[in-house]
Predict the structure.
Amino acid sequence: MNNRQTILIIEDEENITKLLRTILRTHGYNAIVATNANEGKSMASSHVPDLILLDLGLPDEDGINVIKQFREWTNIPVIVVSARSNDYDKVTALDLGADDYVTKPFSTDELLARIRTALRHKRVSFDEELKRTKLFVCGNLKIDFDKHFVTIGEEKVHLTNIEFKIMELLCKSSGKVLTHDYIMNAIWGPYAHNDNKILRVNMANLRRKIENNPADPKYIFTEPGVGYRMIEAD
Amino acid sequence: MWVFYMKKQILKDSVITISLLTIALLLAFVLNFYDNSQLSIACSLILAVLFTARFTHGYVYGIISSIAGTLLINYFFTFPYFEFNLTMPINIVTAIATFTVSIVTSAVTTQLQNHRELAHKAELEMMRTNLMRSVSHDLRTPLTSIMGAATVLKENDSLLDAKGKAELYDQINDEARWLFNMVENLLSVTRLNNSIEPVHKDCELAEEIIAVAVKKIQKYYKDINIIIDASDKMIFVPMDFTLISQVLINLIENSIRHGNSSHYIRVSVREMENYAEFFVEDRGGGLPKSIISALNSNEYIMPESTGDSSKYMGIGLSVCEAIIKSHGGHIHAQNLECGAKVAFFLPLDEYEDM
């Protein structure tokens, strides 16, 4: 028995499976493979992997449904790997509980980064980590959650209350994508306006305060049609 | 959003119809003051109907305008004044004549308008067919190169030194990347399924779209220096995010691949009256004259397989052009003293009240 982390690949394309398996094994993970949804579900419950890579276009069942079923009984991180590039599928998958998504064709670096982030968030609930450290540091950006204090280098940045709340939310899930709906819900509550323009204006203002060039962001990235992603902490 | 657009369209068309009728009536009052003949009054009504049919969508407004106009003229300008009277034979004749003339005018103008839209659609269709053909044709080259490189690597492994292998790996990567972008372009074109139906637009922040496009490019071209220069003001532009980011990616990639400009590429956006102006500028070899004149004229670039490298540029640019046009914008290219600049303009005014 080794202590390598196990990743379950649920994917029906043989070439992609081979590629994923090779990538994962060469980077120190254990890879197990299921080629359809049913097999995937039973392997997930029998092996209890550390993470699941899930294709949405499976032969026997839509991947979206599979996520729903996983979330009924487990919190194992699920990363969607899919050729579907429309925003609707991504947002649905994320809102149903997928941790992240990668669109085909993906780069190896991108995939590995997403896996690392998801595993890290699983290992320590970041909420607890934040409580312990009360500090988020990345490059020049430093956020002190206790004192409501944000600095870029030596300079103090004044954020509004809403902007700070957004920052906090993003930092808690740094490295992960958060959907517009999720952020809207967390900040403005479930009865907020349907239109997410208010969020985007707030994000734009936030970028103007913490980014050197808002059109070339270093900390908060836009995921078009989906939401935002904060860079991982150092 | 679509319903919203339709409502706005109806409102706009109604306003046009009512204001043109009002102008016609005022004109008729003035004319009536100088010359009491029915002719000038009927003429002003027909003019109003003609312009209504020209500037609104569909037959409905023209017909409404002619019916309302005929009734109003009957009310104001035919004896007995200030009441409807269709019993006097002269009034009936006037009413029927004005009504017929205005309906026919309205029908003819609307038809003309439909014709123009059809011609535009046919042009887009032709560009699409050409694009599909030339892309399918051009897919062969990178495929040959990928298949060849893979075979050489597999069969002649012992004969190749590290440098030779690295070259072949890079070649596979590079060609696959080109294929990927071509597939994205094809997908974009299939999304422009109909030139009459406007593309589905959402209000997007200009700086975000530039950031996303540049990030995508930098994923594949790591040592490229791109200067991003967005205005400090937030510019919300109605657009289809995926399509416009494809435009930016094509323009930047053209600068890198064909302009041979890897030291300096500048991407910028600013607000110009009712438009957002985006541009991509490089310090490379400049664009061929034929492409510049094709872009600046209102015609589609017809991508053709010419066998030289500018064909790739043609494909990317004709996709850009089709996307921009379907957004109601326009594109403009020019050669600078050193390098080239391609700008595109997207209209801002559509959802001013959002």
The CA atoms of residues 46 and 102 of chain B lie 5 Å apart. Chain B has a mean pLDDT of 81.
